[in-house]
């Protein structure tokens, strides 16, 4: 359901720089012209530049570069994911907010999204560099009716979904590095953090945290990661429309989550393998207590990485940092 503000905005956007009559808007939305004017003022306060052309109407001159609900909604094609959007110009971590909202009962598909994180995090309490207005820093709350042991695969489902979205929007194909990284030219462009709220035998919610470096230049990254990280802009040479990318990610995330829940991991695994840069390679895996070396021969239907050690033994790895 679109709000009045969103309806006005979508009309202005659809007019593509031509004036939209205030009277026509008022008639269609069944509100007074004074109300239309108030909504337009509200949009201007959010950074939209709207020009009033005498006797003709309103022209949208420019759009703020933000990932607000108003900017994302027009691109949405999902039935659940992103239908409830909670937007924060700044926050500590969208994972923390989403966890709190999930506990308070936020519906399936709720999207928590921000411009800037002051305490963005990766796995094992590592920090996630989240420059203002340049990335996609978001968390999606999903509530599938599945057993908790099936939750970790959502990291892999998400990796496929984000890769597809990036490919649609930029034409460039990222590689998936097990378990939670997307790389372009060997550098990290995306990280995924999947967290779980569950009872022994039932998932309450899965919170999928997604960080995509979008419009940063190299200098925007902390010096410590400048040689490891990259952005879509650095790789493709052009700015990416963040709201459109967010909507595409949600579209594929909904699509592949549904496939996973209905048909199991097999179909996702095939896609995942086609994008993987890990399988078939000699790798080093740093686990919490040991480091193993060998050839990554595949992933199981549980998303577990199969590592063949030099003595032939095959070890299943549930979580690790992989060095190629
Ligand atoms: C991850 O952890 O890759 C998961 C990152 C998830 C971030 C999203 S943003 C929205 C949501 N809210 C949050 O607070 N988090 C999620 P991990 O595999 O542990 O990788 C972390 C490592 O990646 C760091 O130790 C750095 O070396 C590197 N790194 C940090 N920031 C980066 C960035 N912006 N781009 C590329 N690499 C980065």
Automatic annotation (TrEMBL):
InterPro entries: aa-tRNA-synth_II/BPL/LPL, Bifunct_BirA, Biotin_CoA_COase_ligase, BPL_C, BPL_LPL_catalytic, HTH_11, Transcriptional_repressor_C, WH-like_DNA-bd_sf. PANTHER family: BIOTIN PROTEIN LIGASE, BIOTIN--PROTEIN LIGASE. It comes from Psychrobacillus vulpis. Residues 22-41 bind DNA. Biotin binds at residues 117, 121-123, 188. It catalyses: biotin + L-lysyl-[protein] + ATP = N(6)-biotinyl-L-lysyl-[protein] + AMP + diphosphate + H(+). It is an enzyme of class 6 (ligase). NCBIfam families: birA_ligase. Acts both as a biotin--[acetyl-CoA-carboxylase] ligase and a repressor. Keywords: ATP-binding, Biotin, DNA-binding, Ligase, Nucleotide-binding, Repressor, Transcription, Transcription regulation. Residues 70-261 form the BPL/LPL catalytic domain. The gene is birA. GO terms for biological process: protein lipoylation; regulation of DNA-templated transcription. It comes from the Bacteria. Belongs to the biotin--protein ligase family. It holds the Pfam family HTH_11. This is Bifunctional ligase/repressor BirA. One of its GO terms (molecular function) is biotin--[biotin carboxyl-carrier protein] ligase activity. GO terms for cellular component: cytoplasm. Its EC number is 6.3.4.15.
């Amino acid at each position: 359901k679109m709000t009045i503000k969103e309806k006005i905005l979508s009309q202005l956007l659809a007019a593509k720089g031509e004036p939209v009559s205030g009277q026509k808007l008022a008639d269609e939305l069944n509100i007074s012209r004074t109300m239309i004017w108030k909504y337009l003022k509200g949009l201007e306060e959010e950074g939209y530049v709207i020009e009033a052309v005498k006797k003709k109407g309103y022209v949208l001159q420019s759009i703020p570069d933000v990932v607000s609900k108003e900017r994302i909604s027009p691109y949405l094609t999902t039935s659940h994911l992103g239908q409830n959007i909670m937007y924060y110009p700044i926050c500590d971590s969208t994972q923390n907010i989403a966890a709190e909202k999930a506990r308070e009962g936020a519906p399936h598909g709720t999207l928590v999204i921000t411009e800037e994180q002051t305490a963005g995090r990766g796995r094992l309490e590592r920090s996630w560099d989240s420059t203002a207005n340049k990335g996609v820093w978001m968390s999606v709350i999903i509530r599938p009716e599945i057993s908790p042991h099936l939750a970790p695969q959502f990291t892999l489902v998400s990796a496929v979904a984000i890769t597809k979205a990036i490919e649609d929007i930029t034409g460039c194909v990222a590689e998936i590095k097990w378990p939670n990284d997307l790389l372009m030219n060997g550098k990290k462009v995306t990280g995924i953090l999947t967290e779980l709220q569950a009872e022994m035998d039932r998932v309450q919610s899965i919170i999928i945290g997604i960080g995509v470096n979008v419009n940063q230049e190299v200098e925007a990254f902390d010096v410590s990661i400048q040689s490891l990280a990259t952005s879509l802009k650095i790789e493709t040479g052009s700015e990416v429309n963040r709201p459109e990318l967010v909507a595409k990610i949600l579209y594929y995330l909904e699509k592949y989550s549904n496939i996973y829940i209905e048909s199991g991991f097999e179909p996702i695994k095939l896609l995942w393998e086609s994008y993987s840069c890990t399988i078939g390679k000699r790798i080093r895996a740093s686990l919490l207590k040991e480091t193993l070396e060998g050839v990554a021969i595949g992933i199981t239907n549980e998303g577990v990485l199969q590592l063949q050690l030099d003595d032939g033994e095959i070890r299943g790895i549930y979580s690790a940092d992989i060095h190629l």
